[in-house]
Amino acid sequence: MRKKLVAGNWKMHGSLLDNDTLLNALNKGIAVLGNEANCAVCVPYPYLAMVQSKLQGTNIKWGAQNVSQHEKGAYTGEVSAVMLNDFNCTYVIVGHSERRMLYGESNQVVAEKYLTAQKHKLVPILCVGETLEQRDSDTTEQIIEEQVNAVLALAGVDSLSNAVIAYEPVWAIGTGKTATPQQAQDIHHFIRQGIAKQNAEVAAGVTVLYGGSVKANNAAELFAMPDIDGGLIGGASLIADDFIAICKAAHS
Ligand code: 13P
Question: Residue 150 sits in a domain of what CATH number?
Answer without folding.
Answer: 3.20.20.70
